């Protein structure tokens, strides 16, 4: 019998498996992934930013895991020859009101231990990003770019070298404790028994947790993030990474520009409700998924609270002109003709029953089961630290 099963082959599941095997090398570990390869959902649709931790409340799990994970990720990439670029980024205030938020973020970044932060005036912004307009900006030198799909493949390789097994095309349908073991059942009627299991199911994590956690007060609400990318002839408009000042009441960073490690420049994302848990296209629809979201009391409260913001995001989803206008807040010279469609991603945003959009990581323990129920951005940056946190919870249970 295996000691531990990890359910979910995204970067969080892979990092957790890796950290467990590093902590206790002889652990009999299997990782179960429903797709034909690892990193196919949130991780595989990630724009590849290495986040610095400037946004996150000091002392929160998000801040701690981001800062620790940042250091661990850089070390892992260097040791394994994974290309990355600490190119830095700008967070730009477009008006006088947003300057207050700039100062708050600057102070927060310093509290989180970031060094070399600079507040730039409008002329200094031009020295870093010539086509960006703003009244003020923070320059964050620690931010970088990487391809997380490559990180996933390297983690998979490391897990297998350490004696773990990665099993693909195994879709877990049920997960529960039976006597002293955990039973894992697949949709194809296969059954595995292990001593303990860790649910890193991402977009499906709450459904798997509900099998064992009574009165679960968290539901995954899927938000699709839609992107454009700059045409080859328009890439000169962006040197590295350019972000707006985020809305402090909404857990998304707003449409921004991201130079990727392959040289492409992405613009986006917006944040619209997805009508399917893994709905990467506007036309993707699953009645069960959609109704499950609509009847969740937490989502209903979120919809009432953010209806105006939501309508704006939806409008941008169907209007390239509106999307372009949002981008022009940062780069006024950009035009619709500079943009071409790019693949979308879906974010597993946890919502509490009382109407909160969870901003921090959430991990639930129940007997011999551990559920990672919310791992929002910067989960990819933080993944090795999250994995270490979960490993530290798991290993004493063996």
Brief account:
The protein is α+β, with helices and mostly antiparallel strands and 398 residues long. It has helices spanning 11-23, 61-79, 99-111, 122-128, 148-161, 205-210, 287-294, 297-305, 307-318, 320-328, 379-394, and strands at residues 2-7, 29-32, 49-50, 84-85, 89-93, 118-121, 136-140, 144-146, 165-167, 172-178, 181-186, 191-199, 218-230, 241-244, 256-259, 265-268, 272-273, 339-352, 362-366, 369-374. The two termini are 13 Å apart.
The total domain count is 3
CATH homologous superfamily (4th level) name of the largest domain? FAD/NAD(P)-binding domain
Q: Round the mean pLDDT to the nearest integer and report it.
A: 93
The low-pLDDT segments are none
Main pleated sheet: 9 strands, mixed
> Would you tell me which CATH topology of the largest domain applies?
FAD/NAD(P)-binding domain
- Radius of gyration, rounded? 21 Å
Strand content: 25-35%
List the helices and strands and how they pair.
Blueprint: E1 2-7, H1 11-23, E2 29-32, E3 49-50, H2 61-79, E4 84-85, E5 89-93, H3 99-111, E6 118-121, H4 122-128, E7 136-140, E8 144-146, H5 148-161, E9 165-167, E10 172-178, E11 181-186, E12 191-199, H6 205-210, E13 218-230, E14 241-244, E15 256-259, E16 265-268, E17 272-273, H7 287-294, H8 297-305, H9 307-318, H10 320-328, E18 339-352, E19 362-366, E20 369-374, H11 379-394
Helix pairs in contact: 1-5, 1-11, 2-11, 9-10
Key traits:
single chain, 398 residues, alpha+beta, FAD/NAD(P)-binding domain, D-Amino Acid Oxidase, Chain A, domain 2, 3 domains, nine-stranded mixed β-sheet, eight-stranded mixed β-sheet, globular
